[in-house]
Amino acid sequence: MDFAETLLSWYDTHKRDLPWRETKDAYRIWISEIILQQTRVEQGWDYYLRFIDRFPDAKNLAQADEDEVLRLWQGLGYYSRARNLHTAAKTVAKQGSFPTTYEEVRALKGVGDYTAAAICSIAYNMPVAVLDGNVFRVLARYFHVELPINSTKGRKYFAKLAQELLPEAQAGTYNQAIMDFGALQCVPARPNCEQCPLRDSCSAFHQGDVSHFPVKERRLTVKDRYMAYVFLHQNGKTLMHQRIGSDIWRGLYEPLLIEFEQKPTDSEILTHSVLQSIDTSLVLHERVGILKHKLTHRTLYIRAFDAEVSQHANIPSGYQWVDAREMSQLPLPRAIELLLEKSMP
């Protein structure tokens, strides 16, 4: 059997039983693909079921309030995905149906080349090859491709190779097969090559350098950020505000935030001008120790404090008092969720 036939045969036996594989509805496949961007299948499964239960079609999603969409997304991270999903749903609802051409699907907010190929091939069996991390890894190892997958030349090469290997009559099934193969068999670390159906013709296996692939150029610089969240309380309520601007947490709620370029001392936090402008008599009580939260380009070092403010405190504009019930309904960054979980009695 050739490469594609071997993968299809393997998939017939080993494919994962996933809820979004029970349908050819492009809307539902789209929801699953957006959720699975930067998210493991195990984590995304329940989110997909909740999303489809609440928003069974694009019209329902389009009519929802953004806060509700973000709240349902809470914990998945990369919240721009949820905002883009909401915006795209409005486009689909306005058009009256989900688009049926690659170009129209690709034009939806938040949909890139991979996602458009996945949706179109799975829902419509359109002959467009997917190219994600799993596919890069399988192809790089099997064909011993030294080109960096995050280089322009590398991406063009892999895109051409993936398209050439695609069996057009079984495009959707093949795309799912190669992605599952990368996720279950040709895994990043310590793959079980002895039990691999492609072993006899895999170049990396025969040259003994499977772990070398895929090749990547080192570009990412991770910076540290030092953050102090202060939960200001008054009459049993907590001061919160909704983030604005263009960062990844836009639209989510958080307590008062003070950022520092270096690791701050307790005194530097307490005497910070922002806190002093609110209430000079504040007494801070630390909730938990330092929380380390990793993002793609940032490592956050977070401390959290509670403080009671007087009736004469100078409350910053844009903030609102919320009680415990309201707090539980607000869409929060995952970092805030973790702080709340760690400080629960």
Comma- or semicolon-separated keywords:
2 domains, Nucleoside Triphosphate Pyrophosphohydrolase, 345 residues, Endonuclease III, domain 1, eight-stranded mixed β-sheet, globular, alpha+beta
Present the secondary structure layout.
Layout lengths: L2 H12 L11 H10 L5 H14 L3 H6 L2 H8 L6 H16 L6 H5 L6 H12 L8 H11 L8 H14 L5 H14 L18 H5 L15 E12 L2 E6 L10 E2 L1 E5 L5 H5 L2 H6 L6 E2 L4 E4 L3 E11 L10 E4 L1 H6 L4 H9 L3
Parallel strand pairs: 1-7
Antiparallel strand pairs: 1-2, 1-4, 2-3, 2-8, 5-7, 6-7
What would your notes on this structure say?
The structure is a single chain. By secondary structure, this protein is an alpha+beta fold. It folds into two domains: 3-131 and 152-184, Endonuclease III, domain 1; 223-342, Alpha-Beta Complex (Nucleoside Triphosphate Pyrophosphohydrolase), CATH 3.90.79.10. Helix content is 44%, strand content 13%. It is built from 16 helices and eight strands. Strands 1, 2, 3, 4, 5, 6, 7 and 8 form an eight-stranded mixed sheet that branches. It starts with a helix and ends with a helix.
Sum this structure up briefly.
The chain has helices at residues 3-14, 26-35, 41-54, 58-63, 66-73, 80-95, 102-106, 113-124, 133-143, 152-165, 171-184, 203-207, 266-270, 273-278, 324-329, 334-342; strands spanning 223-234, 237-242, 253-254, 256-260, 285-286, 291-294, 298-308, 319-322.
